[in-house]
Design a protein that fits this description.
CATH architecture of one domain: Orthogonal Bundle
Number of helices: 22
Strand content: 5-15%
Helix content: 40-55%
Largest sheet: 4 strands, antiparallel
Strand order of the largest sheet: 1-2-4-3
Radius of gyration: 29 Å
CATH superfamily of one domain: Isoleucyl-tRNA Synthetase, Domain 1
CATH class of one domain: Mainly Alpha
Distance between the termini: 47 Å
Structural class: alpha/beta
Shape: globular
CATH topology of one domain: Isoleucyl-tRNA Synthetase, Domain 1
RNA sequence: GCGCUCGUAGCUCAGUUGGAUAGAGCAUCGCUUUCCUAAAGCGAAGGUCGCAGGUUCGAAUCCUGCCGGGCGCGCCA
């Protein structure tokens, strides 16, 4: 019983935390101040030859409390008690404290990590998380723009779920409003059969509707800009007469929809079904956990929009301006429009309704918007408006944090936003199929090698693996960069089995699987950490929990990617220099097999949070 | 015009939120190597961290001003 308690306490400690606490105590006693106010600035040491961790706090604290930093560091070193974790640290340079963890501790910690949850601590916060992702528009095919929002959002969701949070993936469909009404009007007036509707027909109608809308807008703007006299205005109106006619017809349709016209609503639903059927197929191929259950689009909020505006108006935050209702902010000129002068609502209105739903009804204390960086201003307005009206809290009064995760564009090799040769948007589907094809080509090529484990596989098996590699390649390439940056879509680099790529990590993982198949699992074998490569690998593994929580904290999946790549590298060095299968020393052999298997499970788990599958052979 | 954002090796990118001599992978050039292993390995070269100031014991990182690229700016989403 006693032992059980000790084990529990030990497990809840991670190395870095333990070092930090010990040093806080040491600094506190030497400087005679409250240890809790001290930050010893613990970092992983850059050079493993020198140390495992370093404490950089002596410099700053020495300065602050009038001590020579080197002398302070030496005093700290002489009094600090790391218990069994580490031996006496060393002082270097201007006051760095270098700490080396002893092998017994590393061994013990790795053994503790080697359990079902792989040392990942659950999040203490138990509120839900809402993630706005994908953002598909009805009547519109998914294109590259949706790729990033979907896979980044899904990855963040998976990371949160991994630490025990409930996540609502919110697919905020563009399924309501004038654009959809225009498409519907066009299809109805051309007497298209909605039951045999194809997505291509819808797309064409959507594009056409957008052109018409743009024409009207351009005409109005041109007229205003030129300060045109009445005759000039009439001229433009004549030019856009048909456009305006279409607009008027669409508005009629929209009105009928909003009134709840049953027949029209049924037809509207057909547009959605037609669109979503194709969308789900793409999302499925992309291996993301987004399906019909995640749909909560603009139409879901349609009856709440009036209330949103009313709330703002009655609290004095929404004021009338030129016939429209706007919300103004103290520190900037730009207002946020929440109601048009014709009484119509805007996307800002819907987003406000969605915020309130997510915080108040879903109980999310973090609402995350994975949306293109170009919408930064919109989200700044949205979040500030939310704060003004105090909708940024859950029902239990917990403050809800609204975060925009902005991401850059996918570029073609001309460094411009990715387009097809004819200049149109690249559909997600074509991109994914190209990736699958490239992945499959790689797998088939490798299966021709007689000593490859895939050499006896049938076509269907090879195709499955090819899909896993191709999709993994583009997802990893996307997630492994700092999100804010644009990146050039280069399939050759993405599917390469060398370098910081998805396939490289998958391959390394498959090879460990192969090793385990030959050597057998060694659950519970005694670990022996002695060789430098074993030590480096073990220390790397022990960072898993911290890296994951940092990736979540900063909403940066590329941290996890970088670390997985480093882990894979550490394993390669280990596998290169530490024999396993041919060892006669059964103890070391079992230990190494266990270390390998733990590495494999961590890689599989890590890749899973990126939405990437880990084939056992490839 | 105003605002946001990015700028790191030839190329593609990291850089642990202010720490030691700025790191990887491709590509280049050398040298080893036929092995328990489904991957060859090791090394070299390559940098004014866009530029100039400032803060600091200490700056790629924070502040200011420039330069260059991208993006956004009232009734579209």
């Amino acid at each position: 019983m006693v032992q059980f308690v000790i084990v529990r306490v030990y497990m809840s400690l991670n190395i870095q935390q333990h070092i930090c606490d010990s040093l806080k105590t040491a600094f506190g006693s030497v400087l005679n101040i409250d240890p809790n106010e001290i930050d010893p600035v613990i970092r992983r040491a850059q050079n493993p030859e020198i140390a495992d961790f370093q404490a950089n706090g002596a410099m700053g604290l020495g300065k602050k409390y009038g001590h020579n930093p080197i002398e302070l560091a030496e005093k700290i070193v002489s009094v600090v008690d790391f218990g069994t974790f580490a031996d006496k640290p060393e002082v270097a340079g201007p006051g760095f404290i270098n700490i080396r963890i002893n092998n017994e501790t590393i061994t013990k910690l790795v053994e503790e990590m080697d359990c079902e949850n792989l040392g990942v601590e659950p999040d203490k916060d138990t509120h839900a998380i809402a993630i706005d992702l994908c953002g598909v528009n009805v009547a519109k095919q998914l294109h590259v723009g949706h790729l990033r929002s979907t896979i980044i959002g899904d990855s963040i969701a998976r990371m949160y779920e991994r630490v025990g949070r409930t996540v609502y993936r919110e697919n905020h469909l563009g399924d309501w409003g004038l654009p959809i009404a225009m498409v519907l009007e066009q299809l109805l007036s051309s007497e298209t059969n909605l039951d045999t509707l194809e997505l291509d027909d819808l797309n064409a109608a959507y594009k056409n509707a957008q052109l018409v809308a743009k024409d009207e807008l351009r005409g109005e703007k041109a007229a205003k800009k030129l300060q045109s006299g009445p005759h000039r205005f009439i001229e433009i109106e004549e030019q856009n007469a048909s456009a305006l006619g279409a607009q008027a017809a669409a508005k009629t349709v929209l009105n009928a929809l909003q009134r709840g016209d049953k027949k029209l609503l049924a037809n509207w639903q057909k547009l959605i079904d037609c669109t979503m059927e194709a969308v789900y197929a793409s999302l499925d191929l992309l291996n993301v956990k987004v399906g019909p259950e995640n749909n909560r689009g603009e139409s879901f909020y349609r009856d709440r929009l009036g209330g949103v505006v009313e709330s703002f108006v009655s609290s004095g935050l929404g004021i009338e301006d030129d016939g429209a209702i706007v919300v103004r902010f103290k520190n900037r000129e730009r207002p946020m429009l929440i109601q048009k002068s014709d009484g119509g609502f805007l996307y800002a209105t819907t987003d406000l309704a969605a915020v309130r739903f997510r915080t108040n009804e879903l109980g999310a204390d973090r609402v995350i918007y994975v949306v293109d960086a170009r919408q930064r201003d919109h989200f700044k307005d949205l979040f500030d408006a939310t704060a003004l009206i105090s909708w940024n809290q859950t029902p239990d009064g917990t403050g809800a944090e609204l975060v925009h995760v902005p991401f850059g564009s996918v570029l073609g090799d001309d460094n411009k936003p990715l387009k097809t040769r004819s200049g149109s948007n690249v559909t997600l589907d074509s991109l994914l199929h190209e990736a699958v094809e490239r992945g499959t080509t790689e797998v088939i090529k490798r299966s021709k090698e007689p000593n490859s484990p895939t050499s006896k596989m049938c076509d269907a098996e090879l195709k499955t693996i090819g899909r896993q590699i191709g999709i993994g390649a583009i997802k990893y390439a996307d997630l492994s960069n700092d999100l804010i940056r644009d990146y050039v879509f280069d399939m050759n680099r993405m599917v390469a089995f060398e370098g910081n790529t998805g396939p490289y990590i998958q391959y390394a993982c498959a090879r460990i699987s192969s090793l385990i198949r030959k050597g057998g699992e060694r659950v519970g074998a005694k670990l022996v950490i002695e060789e430098p490569q074993e030590r480096v690998l073990a220390l790397k593994l022990l960072q898993y929990n911290n890296v994951l929580h940092d990736s979540i904290k900063y909403l940066e999946p590329h941290r996890l990617c970088t670390w997985l790549y480093e882990l894979t590298d550490a394993f390669s060095a280990f596998y290169q220099l530490c024999p396993v299968l041919k060892l006669d020393d059964e103890l070391t052999k079992q230990s190494r097999l266990r270390l390998s298997d733990l590495t494999r499970r961590v890689i599989v788990d890590g890749l899973d949070m990126l939405g990437i599958e880990s084939p056992e052979q490839m």
